[in-house]
Amino acid sequence: MGTFPCARLCRAQYAEDVATFDDEEELVDAFCDSIPEGMDPFTEASIFGTLSATYVNTVLRELFSPERLDLTVIRPDHTIETEEDE
User: Fold this and answer.
1) Residue 72 placed within a domain
2) Crossing angle for the helix pair 6-20 and 53-63, nearest 10 degrees?
3) Whether this model's pTM surpasses 0.70
4) How far is residue 48's CA from residue 43's CA, in Å, rounded to a whole number?
5) In terms of residue numbers, what domain contains 15?
């Protein structure tokens, strides 16, 4: 896996989050999405400035590691085959 363009992605996400503050409906949606997680849109937006490329790459490697991935094939005869069945 190559290096992740962390700084650029963080700036883009930050800009998208800040643009949300211009639209009342989007801001309400952002609050409804983030408050159950114990966050608020203002804090959430500021977090992107603190992420490092090393941290993001570590998290991505952990989330998308081969042992966490699974494959399911649905056949036309409606049988389901997983990697464990092979």
Assistant:
1) yes
2) 90
3) no
4) 9
5) 6-85
